[in-house]
Amino acid sequence: MRVLEERIREEGLILSETVLKVDSFLNHQVDTELALQIGQEFKTVFGHLPITKILTVEASGIQFAMAAGIALGVPFIYAKKKKAVTLSEGVYSAPVHSFTRQEDYLISISQKYLGPEDKVLIVDDFLATGAALVGLADIVKESGAQLLGVGCVIEKSFQEGRSLLEKRGIPVHALARISSMAPGEIHFIANEEQ
Ligand code: 5GP
């Protein structure tokens, strides 16, 4: 997605060899117009599939799951990271190791909102180690729903996330695929539709 790659080049801050900060338009302040365009792009890629629910993890996937949900006309669910008192019974849970925070946490979704009748698209902001998305994929499996694909806004292709998901037979599409990055220099892998 060219407009996204341009913004990453213009505004992305490379914090280390593996961490990209995009807080000015994606992760902290959110460019709402761009977020909606991202949702439309997910529709272009996945719209032919019979998706009934979008799934993401709080907090940074929410705006893109919502944009995809609006574009596809389906609800989205975000997995919660803290065990809320309101989410005490009937939950699907999976452990996740956080790449950015270097800690383990549990993600949970109420069993009320996901079941064998659902066909799911997982959406997230970054595909890095894939830990968060594998956790979500485990939850989808536990629920008996069918996982149709994973859509990510930014993929860091030099990390193992994509291969981890593809090994499980999950189709993955990322809107911007970074092959390498260093201060002042970001390289992208071209997507077929560009
Ligand atoms: P994972 O390693 O599980 O694929 O990534 C989990 C989460 O860590 C992503 O959804 C994203 O929120 C965060 N993350 C991973 N890599 C980066 C990065 O380079 N920059 C930012 N801002 N967040 C990241």
Automatic annotation (TrEMBL):
5-phospho-alpha-D-ribose 1-diphosphate binds at residues 128-132. GO terms for molecular function: xanthine phosphoribosyltransferase activity. It comes from the Bacteria. Pathway: Purine metabolism; XMP biosynthesis via salvage pathway; XMP from xanthine: step 1/1. Xanthine binds at residues 20, 27, 156. The keyword Kinase does not apply. Keywords: Cytoplasm, Glycosyltransferase, Purine salvage, Transferase. The keyword Cytoplasm applies. It is found in: Cytoplasm. Residues 52-159 form the Phosphoribosyltransferase domain. Its EC number is 2.4.2.22. It catalyses: XMP + diphosphate = xanthine + 5-phospho-alpha-D-ribose 1-diphosphate. Belongs to the purine/pyrimidine phosphoribosyltransferase family. Xpt subfamily. Homodimer. PANTHER family: HYPOXANTHINE/GUANINE PHOSPHORIBOSYLTRANSFERASE, XANTHINE PHOSPHORIBOSYLTRANSFERASE. Converts the preformed base xanthine, a product of nucleic acid breakdown, to xanthosine 5'-monophosphate (XMP), so it can be reused for RNA or DNA synthesis. HAMAP family: XPRTase. This is Xanthine phosphoribosyltransferase. It comes from Paenibacillus tianjinensis.
